[in-house]
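Researcher: Predict the fold of Oligopeptide transport system ATP-binding protein.
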Amino acid sequence: AEAILSATDLVKHYPIRGGVLRRTVGQVKAVDGVSFELYKGETLGIVGESGCGKSTLGRLLMRLEEPTSGSLIFDGVDVYKQRGRAMRKLRRDIQIVFQDPYTSLNPRKTVGDIIGEPFDIHPDVVPKQGRRRKVQELLELVGLSPEHINRYPHQFSGGQRQRIGIARGIALNPKVLICDEPVSALDVSVQAQVVNLMEKLQDELGLSYVFIAHDLSVVRHISDRVGVMYLGKMAEIGDEDEVYSRPTHPYTQALLSAVPVPDPTLRNKREQIVLQGDVPSPANPPSGCRFHTRCFKAQEKCKVDVPELILRPDGAGEHFSACHFAAPREIIETIDVSGAA
Ligand code: SF4
Ligand code: MG
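Model: C-alpha cells for Oligopeptide transport system ATP-binding protein follow.
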C-alpha cells in the first residue's frame, strides 16, 4: 500500500512554567516519538484514554501545532518545512472535522457562510459566482437539502450539524481528513448514520482518514487499521481485525476486555483484565515501558528498557506491538458493529 501521510518520530512537549520567574520547570510529553503511515484511501483509527496524546497528534498532523521534533511527509512533501504559498496549498489537502458540532459552528453565520468559509481563505478554488452552487452541491453530498443554505446552526439537530462540519471539511477537495472524535458528542443512534456518511464520502472522493476516538466500537467499525496510544506513545498498531480479535499488547488486551459484553452467554467466558491505578502524568511518565506501573505482565526488564514497536512474533499481517513480551491473546468478540451497515 502507498502512504499518503508518513509520520516519523513525532514529538510534542509542552513546557510547564513555575515560580515567579515563570521558568520552565518541566515538560508535558504529550506526544513522545510516534511513527506511522496512513495509506491512500484507508481509515486509520487512533484510540486511547484521555490524556494519551491522540488529540495533540491530530493537531500535529494538521500543523495546528509545530512539533518539538520529528517529521511528517505528505504526498512526498516535508510538511514542517513548508512556508507561505506552499504551506497554504498543503492546508487545502489536509482538513479537519472537529468533535463538537455544537460549538464548532458559528451560531451567527448561515450554513452557506460556514461551509463557504474555506473559500474565503482559498479564493482560487471556486470562483466567487460559483460558490453558492458549490455549497449547495456540498449540502447534497452530505445528505442535507440545498435549501438549507440560508439557515442557522441552531435550526439543525446534532447529527445534521456534524454533516455541516463534514461539508466544510471536504469543501476544498482535501486528500486527508483528520477526524477528531467526530461522533463522540452525538447520540448512539445518530453515530452510525454519520459514520456511514463518512464511509460513503471516502469511497466517492477517494479520501484517507485519520479517525481519532476513545470509543472502541466506533473506531472498529470505520477503521481499516487501528493504532492504540498510551501516554504519548503508540502501544500497538495493525489491521483492525487483528488488533481487535488477537491483540498482542497488554494495554490493548485490557482495554478490550473492559468493553461491556451484551450477550449473557458470553459474559462469563470472558475474563476482564483489571488495570492497577490511574494513568500516570505525562509530565513524569514511568521509566522503561510507560505501561509498567499498570501492566499485569510487567517484569523487571520493563522498568528499565523502553520497548520498540516491532512486528508481532507470529507475523500475522502487518501488526506491531511495543511490548517486550508481546503475545496474541484471543478476545471474545463482543463489539457490536451491526448498528452501522
Ligand atoms: Fe507490560 Fe512489560 Fe509489555 Fe510494557 S513491556 S506492556 S510492562 S509486559
Ligand atoms: Mg473504509
